[in-house]
Amino acid sequence: MADGVFRAGAPGRSTVTAWRGDARGTLDLTVLGPLARVDSTVDRVGLNRAGDSGLFGVVGYDAEGNTAPIEPADLTLEYDRTLLAVTPTADGNLSVKALGDSGSALVTVHVGRQATVLPVTVGLTDVPVAGFDDAASWRFSQARASGAVAPAPGHTGTGLRMTYDFSQSTGTRAAYADPPAWIAVPGQPQAFGIWIHGNGTGEWPSLHLHDAQDTQHVLRGPLVTWKGWKYVEFAVPPGVQYPVRVRRFYVAETNPAAQYTSEVVIDDLVAKVPPTVDAPAEPPRTDRVVLRDGTVDGAPWRFAVLSDAQFVAADPDSDLVAQARRTLREVKAAKPDFLVINGDFVDTAYPADFALAKRLLDEELGGELPWYYVPGNHEIMGAPIDNFRAVFGDTQRVFDHAGTRFVTLNSSTGSLRGGGFDQVRMLREALDSAAADPAVGSVVVLHHHPPRDPSPAKASQLGDRKEAALLEQWLADFQHRTGKGALFVGGHVGTFHADRVDGVPYVINGNSGKNPSTPPQLGGFTGWTEFGVDPVTPAEAERARRDPLVEGPRWVAAEFHAHTDRLAVSAPAAVAVGTPATVTATLTQPGGRAVPVAAPVSADWSASPNVHIGGVGGVRPWHVARFDPATGQLTALRAGGQVLLAVTVNGVRAEATVALTAAETPGGGTRRLTGPA
């Protein structure tokens, strides 16, 4: 330490003491592991005109997901200094100020060898999207409602009137206005604006978009509590992949007690478009808790999780019911110790829906597999939680299994406190007792809404961000303080995903029936999750407790089982020594959804005995080729003969045969190489 600057030497905790004469002060410091990546605290900055400014900070992450802010003095910035001025603030953030009225730039932040890019735009232009002169060709659709659309006098010229009856159900009702074709929107809009003539009945106006990856985004406006015309804007969430298309405008009612018939007139939909800026795409992350190659079959014990089937009793022969049955059969065939249904098994919360859910569980599991049912938001869709309790009992519970404590909580209202503050107290007590119990080596917390939604909209997470932060803090503190393992499992987002926060893995189970909300390559497939558990011993916990900022015991692994109707391997007919080739696999799901067999899909690669599966370090003299599932690269080590590659996903196997040929020389001939590559 020199000139008041502390320079970290190794990970760990330290106390810095300063004194002068009799005056003394101390400061506790925590040094994280080596920097693994950096990110900004916002995804983009949009400024309206010259003189406007915005704030952002820079955060560093180590390999365990531990974070710390990075001081401006440790940053190197690259940006257009004719358009922007970036200066540090007293609280350690950065202020970016517009010097011109229009333009765009990328602010590239370097920290050592790591970097992140922040898009900044200046200026917005209103781009017309829909004037509704074609209102007669728009169509009406609905969810648990009835109504119609028709031309009507608008704010300027012709508008579109939508009438609807929201008195036919207590579930969430929606009335949709669908254009003749989805409307392509140029540029990179930061918001949409529309004029709405309301009746003051309190419905929720929404704009439904699809982006370039076909990810769906629902933009929400303020409740229609006004009468007459009002201009409303819908902010576009960060992370949207441009260009976007408008699928429809709609209004929704989520309050079961709100029963009414009403209408709105809409007109002059515009996009608020800044100058275009193209930021490099961030590679998707899948935490190491998810198996990329292998299975959890050999774990000492296993448990399964499924969620988000969302069927209704009114349609007992639907595809959603068929998918729920299929998933239950797959889970039963895997023979885990037990199953957790982590919310939204049904779509509405009427007694008939829960009766059908119970019948499916009885018929498909036959009493041979223990199960626990955790409520999600659809378990209170249109009816009170009492309907769930009448069939499935407690909405939260604590139980131990083979050295792991499970805590299941009710987040059906979108928060934990909404399920009763007593369950928050129950979680705290369960963590404290697990910390002191030598028979408990790990804790798993499950509830439907995850603390963080990895998708750009951030709409499918705990609504109270302080509550989400508290949950993450409690789990991290438990793991760091005790050396025991911690894991969170959620659902709700409609994607399979895993990340790590302060050393604790957070797994999101995707849909088992309902269509996913993200592209297949980003976890948007249907299926279920199987966890393999290797109990944490007291000795392992003690070693981890002594050094809590590095990786603790690898006590749990997740296998994402994608529903697989067909599986195919794509490989070249021949691979030359010295010229690695790419091998890929693709699975097909119901409805024709094609999913690449790559993270986050779990797969089990195998090959003929003369092929090494994995990195260079495992190559032996008898291996004639090496295949790395992480990169998809097949490398020929010696020429002659053939090798077999095979992949298994969720019990379905596909294979390919590849010939190994001699290396090509610059003159067009061949030469032979030996040894590992």
Describe the structure in brief:
This protein is mainly beta.
Protein architecture, described:
With 677 residues, the chain is mostly beta strands. Helices cover 12% and strands 40% of the residues. The chain contains 6 helices and 48 strands. The strands form 12 sheets. Strands 13, 15, 16, 19, 22 and 24 form a 6-stranded antiparallel beta sheet that branches. Strands 14, 17, 18, 20, 21 and 23 form a 6-stranded antiparallel beta sheet that branches. Strand 45 and strand 46 (652-661) form a beta hairpin. Helix 1 (319-334) runs parallel beside helix 2 (351-365) and helix 2 (351-365) packs parallel to helix 3. The chain is globular, with a radius of gyration of 28 Å. The two termini are 45 Å apart.
- Estimate the global geometry from the Cα principal axes: globular
Strand content: 35-45%
The biggest sheet amounts to:
6 strands, antiparallel
How many runs of DSSP E, i.e. beta strands? 48
Distance from N terminus to C terminus (CA atoms, Å) equals 45 Å
Q: What is the helix tally? A: 6
Radius of gyration: 28 Å
Structural class: mainly beta
The unreliable regions are 669-677
Helix coverage percent of residues? 10-25%
Overall mean confidence score, pLDDT:
94
